[in-house]
Amino acid sequence: MLVVNEDIPGFMEKVGSQVLPGTEMEKSFVALPIMSSENVIGMVGISDYEKENAFNESDLRLLQTVVSSMSVALENARLFDETQRLLKE
What DSSP string runs through 30-79? Predict the structure, then answer.
């Protein structure tokens, strides 16, 4: 999980990213990977453009729960598709 709750411009500079001219910079950002087995298959990111420190521990736990549920659902769908494919062979 990546949580940047303040000084996003400083964080962007540190990791070598640039802000596109004319775009608004987030004040807080959270990103979590969507996992399948041990592979990252996607990402969920949430931004707050109005205030720093917008996400508390409760928010992070809720987001982790939602992303974990998404991961399980996607893995189940993949396994179902694989089972259907094998049955057709």
Answer: EEEEEEETTEEEEEEEEEESS-TT---HHHHHHHHHHHHHHHHHHHHHHH
